Sequence to fold (404 residues):
Amino acid sequence: SYRKGGYHAVRIGDSFASGRFIAQRKLGWGQFSTVWLAYDTQTSKYVALKIQKSAPEFVQAALHEIEILSAIVENDPKNEKCVVQLVDHFKHRGPNGQHSCMVLEFLGDSILHLIRYNRYKGLNLIKVREICRCILTGLDYLHRELGIIHTDLKPENILLLSTINPSKDPIRSRPTPILERSEASLKGEVAVNAIEKKLKQRAKRAVAKIAAERRGAIGAVAKPDRCLDGIDFRCKIVDLGNACWANKPIAEEIQTRQYRAPEVILQSGYSFPVDMWSFACTAFELATGEMMFAPKPGQGFSEDEDHLALMMELLGKIPRKIAIGGLRSKDYFDRHGDLKRIRRLKYSSISRLLVDKFKFQETDAREFAEFLNPIFDFAPDKRPTAQQCLRHPWLHQAAAKTVA
Ligand code: ADP
Ligand code: MG
Fold:
């Protein structure tokens, strides 16, 4: 992808926007861009520099993302709405063409990393609540104040706040003697941010412990998410690359598969409630370490059909009117509202699953399910809004109650 129209190759120490931003290390990448930790020489702060591929369709997409990000930052002067903030944007000419660049506030690891570091065991419910409150604050802002649908909410797109500067000694610019050294040694010099470091050390210890346990060296392992104690769990919604104004929806097929709402599969029109569906899937995943729905195609049925079947097994039957009401309904349902190709469903419920499979205490399971179930309404307009969810008692329960 590092060719004409593709990614811009960045070397550590490269400068952008007439020398204002200096690349420090790579933070990540997506289909459209690479993202770099950069030092802002004007403010002496670290930022995330998102450098878009240069082909016209990517430039177009970046313009759209910048429009959305600008609305987000303009209406949140106090930076309290839990959505990533745009610092600046500019164009950068390189050998592969002209690249749109977005300067974003620098954030930490995604909550997907958090789930991984926790060995896919699910986080303590106190932390799940904290993260849920942040996500809902962000969604309420996007939906109610701005009229924006995110359309790709998932653990990967929720980043923790990075509390500590990555390094007191940023790489200032090229060329300096530093240039002579390899990228690998430079990477080693730039201290990773505190949360990342802490988590990695603890994950390493946890893994060592499991290995020891397997060898029979020690007995019961401590509850895994003790590993994450003492970390402040504030986070922000990122990746507005697929976001749209609710009155101008762009794509028909939105959302990452596992977080996709039923109305998107059925093509019966969508709005803000699709984000609420993805939010509930994300909350479940945080609490259990496993995806709520992980559909797979099978013999004689598609991934979509498996997905709808999984939804019904856990949430109950889709009301006939809704099942047959979408442009694609005929592909999946007969006129009675039964799936054509998957006939026998094994019905369960969220709270039963939490107890049986994930070993939740009865009360915890019931209360968490009471929070989630209304959001998983098959009728999008009956789902609570982010604002309504924020008022739900489950989010405001005394912490002591949930300590096992
Ligand atoms: P794309 O639209 O190309 O998918 P994203 O906005 O999802 O790009 O960013 C790609 C990756 O870069 C993210 O998954 C994350 O790892 C990293 N990243 C993005 N924004 C930030 C940020 N503000 N701070 C730190 N890392 C970020
Ligand atoms: Mg992305």
About this structure: The chain has a mean pLDDT of 87. The two ends are 49 Å apart (CA to CA).
